[in-house]
Amino acid sequence: MTMGTIRTVLIEDEASARQLLASLLMDMEFPLQIVGEADDVSGGVALIRKERPELIFLDINLRGGTAFDLLNQLPDLEAEVIFATAYDQYAIRAFDFAALGYLLKPLRISELREAVQRFARRREATAPADHRLKTFLTNQQGKQSRLVVPDLSGFRVLSLSQIIFLRGEINYTRFFLDDGTELLTSKTLKEYERLLDGSGFCRIHQSYLINLTHVKSYQRGEGGVVCLAQGHHLDVSRRRKAEFMRYFVG
Questions:
Q1: How far apart are the C-alpha atoms of 234 and 117, rounded to whole Å?
Q2: What's the pLDDT tens digit per position in 194-210?
Q3: 249: which of 1, 4, 48, 95 fits an S-S bond (Cβ 3.0–4.6 Å)?
């Protein structure tokens, strides 16, 4: 299926940052059309009302106020919002506004691409902007979800509910299961992240992909620590904290 043009606006108070973001986006494979830019709250509100974009890249600190001041003036906003900012302390509030993503500066191309891919998937599926883990759980009731995992002796068929988390080990991935066993397979964590996309799993760290249904608690910190079933405690990276938190805010 060919994706139609994605009408996009950039709202950022620094001209150099807007230029860099525009350059990065235009170098990607997505059909993004930047229909306007703004550097302040009033200009951003006017731009969005005029151009009716589908996707907005938004900094936190703007001339004349903040991103939240801007969003409060647009209660019927239908566009998806991806925050791009140097401040990680606003992540929870950002997801109160159903943000699609929260990227920390300096921007990483891989994270920027992942955010736009998330938009593309949501657009294709016509998913609502306030998608949360509870929606996933509701949709999965009564369904049997399985994953075929190759091992040295052949393969195992796992129910997704059996998997507590996955740990990347260079070119291998180790599964930690709810019966206390472990399973090592010769696929990378990145491959399993792709296979499990949309199935209630979240990449919280370069080394960890967790099953959100097994989360027991979270301890605050720079990135924080998540406690999973069977007493597993895993670090959440600072850059992936916002993506993890969005499933539990709403």
A1: 26
A2: 888 878 899 999 999 99
A3: 95
Residue 111, domain extent: 6-131
In this predicted structure, what is the pLDDT of residue 187? 82
Give one DSSP letter per residue of 87-117, joined into a string. Answer: -STTHHHHHHTT-SEEEESSP-HHHHHHHHH
Q: What is the mean pLDDT of residues 217-239?
A: 92
pLDDT bucket at 3, cuts 50 / 70 / 90: low
What pLDDT shows up at residue 131?
Answer: 40
Helix H or strand E encompassing 10: strand 6-11
Residue 1 covered by a domain: no
Taking Cα atoms as reference points, which of 159, 248, 172 lies closest to residue 212? 248
The CA-based angle 82-89-224, given to 5 degrees, is 105
- From 131, 161, 189, the end of a domain falls on 131
pLDDT in tens, 37-76: 999 999 999 999 999 999 999 999 999 999 999 998 988 7
146 and 210 belong to one structural domain? yes
* Amino acid at the residue 158: L
- C-alpha dist (Å) from residue 32 to 27, 35, 148, 149, 153: 10, 9, 36, 37, 46
Same domain, 180 and 121: no
Supply 108's token pair. Answer: 């990483």
Residues 124 and 140 grouped into a single domain: no
Q: Is the dihedral of CA 152, 157, 163, 168 positive or negative?
A: positive
Contacts of 152 (CB under 8 A, 6+ apart): none
pLDDT for position 55:
95
